[in-house]
Structures are given as structure tokens and as C-alpha cells.
Amino acid sequence: MKPHRASRNLTRRQFTTLSTLGFFTLMATSAGATITLPNLIAKPRSMKLGTTFSQLQCWYLGLDYRDAFREICDLGFERLRLCAYWHEIQPSSNQFDFTTIDWLLEESDRRGIEVTLAVGMKAPRYPEFHFPDWMRSEYDTKTARVLDRDPAIADLTLKMLDRVVSHTRTAPAIKYWQVENEPFTTLEITHGRSLSEAFVRKEVQLVRSRSRPDQKILLTNAITLPDGQGQEDNQAFRASLWLADAVGFNVYTKVPQGASQSYIEAQPLYWKKLENWRSELRRWGKEGWIAEAQAEPWEANELVPVAQNEYPSSSPNQATKIVDQVQEIGFDPVLLWGCEYWYWHRRQGRDQWWSGMQQLLSS
Predict the structure, then answer these.
(1) Do 32 and 275 contact (CB within 8 A), yes or no?
(2) Of 69, 163, 50, 142, nearest to 110 (Cα)?
(3) What is the pLDDT of residues 234-277, one digit of tens each?
(4) How many C-beta atoms surround the C-beta of residue 20 within 10 A?
(5) 3-state secondary structure of 9
(6) What is the pTM of this model?
(7) Is the distance from CB of 196 to CB of 243 less than 8 angstroms?
């Protein structure tokens, strides 16, 4: 039983509406009147809402990750994606430290929250590839385009993956393993680096061999703005379709155009592409997730845009519209991207984002 959400059969908004209607019904009945009540109860969201929590992003924002995690969990999320960062877990070649991820998993279990744990060399948040210092000093982790083509890097990654999954597999909260993050996507933020399908297949096989029978595999992909017609996206989808139990898409609908002050926005074909992918996943009996639904700004040349209260690229209202659209298509669950950002604003006395996400979760 989930302590924060499962016991609520009605949302706060629905409860308030029913209470108000009940009062007026009682008054009308007492006066001998007959009334017809309008259908004022909003249709509840059918899918599960979650978020990605990154202790690294908390560090960027100067936040204590434990305080941030507790308050973010109190919003009432049913799903969380957590990140097993290589540089944090293996600070030296002969040392492993699971202190942080163990704490996050234990706290998630205590709250009855289902966890997807992202594992591998590539995990959510900048710089995407989270190599420890000792690896970056010994191997070419920056200029190589397909990183697993270096046998040493491939071997070290598989050994690290084995150790991480073997250590955390018994955590009751873990229901899914996300193997790498957008492994087949080349982005400017990653200097065009990616992983091969053959190597990711090895990783998936390794994780399946170490995991519990009730745990599944998630792979994530990008969708290119403005129209979802990127050929790389299609190739990544095909590879993920064969390897994973669930395929997740990272949905950003308004991002900067290079370093300019203009933005690229999602067009109708973008949503049509997501519809087509969702239909194909159904045909193959695979789960369709939104692994990242944009709910924080994405601005040119800014790692964490916090100088202003508001930015053109994202708002609580825009985030809500994304959730509505992907729910209409049939994606479930939907993981909102940006919880650390909302919490940071709340600590500054700015409640726009926090209140907006509270309303979204209770609707």
C-alpha cells in the first residue's frame, strides 16, 4: 500500500467538488426542491505519474539531496527513476561506494514507491557519460564516437554493471532497470558520443542474468524536434523494441535553436510519430513510457537556468499540456523531468512550479 497516494480514492479537487455539491443538495432537499447536478467531477488521470531524481542535479543547485528527496517524495509520486552514477559508485578503480544509492532505495521502499534504476556508463543529467576521474585519465572517454569500441572501456563497464546490479538487485523498490540513457542517440551535449547496439545487447543480457524474475528492462530514446522525423530516432526505436520490456521516450516540446534566442517547438508530426510508436509497442506487447516529460526550462548556454523566475521554454502549464497529450496517446507511466528545479525555486520562496506540480499530481 502506497502511503501517499493509494489510500485516496478521490483527488483533493474531486473531494472538494463533491463536498460542495453535497451541501447544496442537502439545502435543496430540505426546501422541497428537486435539482439536477451537473457533471463537474474532472476525469482522473489514468496513468501513473513519476519523476527522475538526480543527486547530481542537487549538487549543481547547491541542495542537500536527502532533504530534497524527502520533500519531492511528499508530492505523492508513484514511480521514481534513480541514477547509479559511475563516478559516485566507483571513486577509485578498486573501491565501490553504494552509500548514496542505498539510502535512496531504502527511502523509496519505506514510502512504497516503485523505482527504475538507471545503470551503465550513461545516465540522466549532464554530462550524460559519468566516468570516474581515474577512468578519464587513463582512457579516451571524450573524443571516441562509439565508446564501447575500446575493449578496455567495454570490459570495465560490464564489470561495473555486474557489481552494481548484484549489489542492488535485492532492493524491494526496484521494479525496472534502465540500461544506459538514450544509448543510441548522439547529442551535442555528449560531444556526439554513443554506444553500439551490440554492446547494449550484452549489457541487457548481463542485467537480466543478475536481476530478480519480477524486474524488467527499460531502454530510452529521444524524439527529434520539430517533427519527429529523425532517422537516428527510428533506428534507436527499432533496437530498443527488440531488447527491452519497456521503451521510454524523452519528450521536450520547446528548446533553444542553437545558441540563438529563438526556439524549436513540437509540430503535429511530432505527436503523430509518438502515436505510431505507441501503436507499434502495443502490437509487440511492450510497455510505452514517457521517460522524461519536460517540466523545467531548457535555455541556451545554461546548465541550470535559475537566474529568472520564468523562462519561455517551459512552465507548469506547458508541462501539464504535455502530460495531457501523452496520456491521450496512451503512454503510461509518465515521468516528469525537473523535480530538483521545482524544489530549488520553493526554497527561494517561489512556489509557482511546486504548486503547479502539486495541482498536476492531484488532478
Answers:
(1) no
(2) 69
(3) 999 999 999 999 999 999 999 999 888 899 999 999 999 999 99
(4) 11
(5) coil
(6) 0.87
(7) no
